[in-house]
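User: What would this chain look like folded?
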Amino acid sequence: MTLGEHNYSTYKVSKKLVREKVSVYDLRLGMYVVELDRPRLETPFLYQGFIISSEEEIDQLAEYCKFVYIDVSQTEVKYQDKGRSKSQLKNRRIYKIPTEKALPEAIGHYDQAKRTVDTVLTSLRLSQDINTQEVKSAVRSCVKSVLKNPNAMMWLTQIKNKDDYTAEHSLRVSVMSVALGRELDLLEQELEDLGVAGMLHDVGKVRIPNEILNKEGALSSEEYEIIKTHTTAGRKLLMSKSDVPPVTVDVAYCHHEQPNGKGYPRGVTAEKIPYFAKIVAVVDAFDAITSDRVYSKGRSVLEALRILYDCRGQHFDEEIVRALIRLIGIYPPGHIAELSSGEVGIILSCPPRNKLRPKLIVVRNPDKKLCPERIMDLSVEQKDKNGQPIRVKEIFTDGAFGIHLQEYKDKGLKFGVPGT
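Assistant: Here's the prediction, encoded as structure tokens.
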């Protein structure tokens, strides 16, 4: 058994020098790092020997290294890991493969999940049964993709069709809930249950007349009361399925409850709202705010995050809102970025430790004309023709500058990507 496999509470080792090789997946607070698996000058860790004092340092080590060497004699691990196994500990916020390489596989999983959502909603409208195993299988594939790199799946959630809102919303809530759950350090099985709950959270809406669901303009008080019944209708539908995870029923019933007790259907306060329902509530609201509807135009991501932040602790759980803000960041995957050089690209990802320097696919030149696609990584300094550092000037949603994500998704996203 290596040091990284122990279950710690407060653990003080002897002073005898013991040098141990440890995977970045197994790093803990209090470990004393003496050597990296690459030259220090290629990393931000330029000093010789240090104690890991924050989760952020672990994430940064994982960004640059596969393993490190620790000095056991100077290591003091200061917390217990809740009995999690080595495989479970690999559920850290580590991107196992680059976004551009994760996208082609993610597209297949995402499209299959979309077909599953369509089938489920169609079956329910026809009063037929839900194929729960098909839902679980689709979600399991999405979870695998999110664990490799959440940016790939988050990229795909930016492709929206307002004429198919209910199905696409259910899928986006599922995928984003899984990505948010990963940010909150949930385990893989928990992520699968959360993904199923997110996918089925709005199934009760199949019992709401379309003329109310898709009404242009404000709902009357009577219509709003009818809309609110989708939570109890969803609970009833899902309770009839013995193979649906219990949390799925909880989420369908409680995702409109609020910590301040002013939600529905029961008006309970924070301590009585299931944790997964709190997660789905935040994602559900975020996606609704940023999506075009028949009766309203979606707002920007940054505006949506501001709204959620302003409502933290009252309408939404504060910890979960903060986690969503960390996950989405300033430059979200799938958004269109105009650069200081005049070029335009599609954002792929941002390094976990440098959210201001995204990686993107450049698709238009400084004259805004189509150009051969190429990957540009702003975390490595790039300069324009005048020798000035290139920065993001402004971001836009899908469709800006005539750039449509669906077209690039249809290409398979293999252009300009080494090794694909």
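Residues 342 and 403 are 15 Å apart (CA to CA). If you want, I can go into more detail on any region.
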